[in-house]
């Protein structure tokens, strides 16, 4: 209800009262005055009802406003809680970023040190080899007959024979090639990168390829997929040159595939060894069986001879029994026997 409506009604009631008063003063008839009085009473009753309705409306508006204020307060509290949770998440993310930054700094320090970088490559190589091959299939820091020591020797049977694996991490030249500001600097870094790879390939080819002791090829392990991908994508001729010298360049993914193949070779070699042992045992068992048959044949011959001897003894015993019975059957007088005795 508009706020001006109660005031207008009150003003109308006052105007009507004044009109009635003027009519009474002018001497109008009593009937008109009574009618106007009834109208005044009806107007007063309507005003009371309007006032009560206004109060009810006001109370309803107050309750509605209080409910809206409570809902707004709840929403504000929920928003504050959500903001607090987001702030907690942001703080945790900030802490993680700080920790990651320190780890990146530590990793940069490790990669910047050649010895530490080499140790990191050896650790990655150890994890890959130990995960795919049995303990008897490899040896760490194996010393060859020429006095050189390789990072890992994979003990494959001939052919192809044991394969030496050496871990190399040419990071400086690769990083310089990636961060080169212009084409001249990039070309210089590329020449340095290819020179490092060729030097590593030459070292591996000279040290770890020994006829009769190792296989005709060796593996150069690059612990970085990025370096390995750059080498194969941009310097395929260098990879082919290394393969012609008996050095195969592998990264973590390709080494994993190569180790799977070697695992199958080792399993086949072990199965062949077991098959040879089984065949040897079967041949020995066949020889023992033949020997047993010969001895059983000899025993059977001895048993047959013994049976014949037993039959001969039985025949002789029967003859003796018959002769004794014949002797008992003879009728010889006793006086003749006595005279024969004298």
From TrEMBL:
| The entry's keywords | Coiled coil, DNA recombination
- Positions the record marks as coiled coil are 36-63
| Name by which UniProt lists this protein | DNA recombination protein RmuC homolog
Pfam families referenced in this protein's UniProt entry, alphabetically = RmuC
Q: Which family does it belong to?
A: Belongs to the RmuC family.
Per the record's keyword annotation, is Repressor included, yes or no? no
Chain ranges passing through the membrane: none
Q: Does the keyword Ligase apply?
A: no
Question: Which organism's genome codes for this protein?
Answer: Falsiroseomonas frigidaquae
């Amino acid at each position: 209800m508009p706020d001006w409506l109660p005031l207008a009604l009150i003003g109308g009631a006052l105007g009507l009262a004044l009109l009635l008063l003027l009519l009474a003063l002018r001497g109008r008839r009593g009937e008109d005055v009574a009618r106007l009085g009834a109208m005044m009473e009806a107007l007063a009753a309507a005003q009371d009802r309007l006032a009560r309705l206004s109060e009810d409306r006001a109370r309803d508006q107050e309750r509605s406003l209080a409910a809206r204020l409570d809902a707004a307060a709840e929403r504000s509290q929920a928003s504050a809680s959500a903001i607090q949770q987001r702030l907690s998440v942001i703080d945790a993310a900030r802490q993680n970023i700080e920790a990651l930054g320190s780890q990146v700094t530590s990793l940069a320090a490790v990669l910047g040190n050649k010895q530490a970088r080499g140790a990191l490559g050896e650790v990655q190589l150890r994890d890959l080899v130990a995960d795919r091959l049995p303990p008897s299939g490899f040896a760490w820091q194996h010393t060859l007959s020429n006095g050189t020591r390789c990072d890992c020797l994979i003990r494959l049977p001939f052919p192809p024979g044991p394969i030496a694996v050496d871990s190399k991490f040419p990071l400086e030249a690769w990083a310089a090639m990636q961060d080169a500001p212009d084409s001249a600097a990039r070309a210089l870094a590329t020449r340095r990168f290819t020179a490092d790879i060729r030097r590593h390939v030459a070292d591996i080819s000279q040290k770890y390829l020994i006829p009769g002791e190792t296989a005709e090829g060796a593996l150069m392990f690059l612990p970085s997929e990025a370096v390995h991908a750059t080498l194969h994508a941009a310097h395929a001729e260098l990879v082919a040159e290394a393969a012609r010298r008996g050095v195969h360049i592998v990264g973590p993914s390709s080494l994993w595939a190569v180790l799977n193949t070697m695992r199958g070779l080792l399993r086949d070699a072990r199965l062949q060894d077991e098959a040879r042992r089984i065949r040897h045992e079967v041949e020995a068992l066949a020889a023992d069986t033949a020997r047993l048959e010969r001895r059983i044949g000899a025993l059977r011959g001895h048993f047959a001879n013994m049976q014949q001897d037993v039959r001969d003894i039985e025949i002789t015993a029967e003859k003796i029994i018959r002769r004794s019975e014949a002797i008992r059957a003879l009728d010889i007088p006793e006086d003749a026997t006595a005279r024969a005795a004298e």
